[in-house]
């Protein structure tokens, strides 16, 4: 059951990611952002789905634990190739290595989202998986892309919301914004369950 709705209930995105902030802004509801202090290191033997979900919940709780009467959205994404986790490259060289390993291959992006309702301390959560097939492109094109967009803070080394879409042959997902970092269809469902008003509170 949703907690009693309150017009003063704050909505907070537990992220300072410009991509997630832009996505949530599409819903045209007021929200704040906050940076969660969470160690994002995967645990030994942890699956990609488990890692992304654990971190999404941890991020939401990190802000929610000291923010009463609020709805906190946490999200995290982990990419895998042949079952092996692919992290953020952090450098040009590692990004090029990632793109070389993924060309002509299918990569799974596991995007977890958690909604911490601090009014009743409940947590709603889900993981949305997007299958992405990368084009088989030569090194010169991969290198040129990286120098233009510099996606070194992005798991998988390609920003699908930008020029990185040119590296992708096709994708399959139940939630089209999940690949960018925040599955909005899933978020809206969670917020509705929590009694958050949309369209000016119209039924």
UniProtKB/TrEMBL annotation:
Location of the active site: 76 (proton acceptor)
One of the record's GO cellular component terms: cytoplasm
GO biological process, one term: nucleotide metabolic process
One MF term in the entry's GO annotations: nucleoside triphosphate diphosphatase activity
Gene3D superfamilies: 3.90.950.10
Major subcellular site: cytoplasm
Pfam families reported in the protein's UniProt record: Maf (PF02545)
EC number: 3.6.1.-
Residue numbers marked as site, Important for substrate specificity: 19, 77, 161
CDD domains per record: Maf (cd00555)
Record's keyword terms, sorted: Cytoplasm, Hydrolase, Nucleotide metabolism
Family membership: Belongs to the Maf family. YceF subfamily.
Protein name per the record: 7-methyl-GTP pyrophosphatase
Lineage start: Bacteria, Pseudomonadati, Pseudomonadota, Betaproteobacteria, Burkholderiales
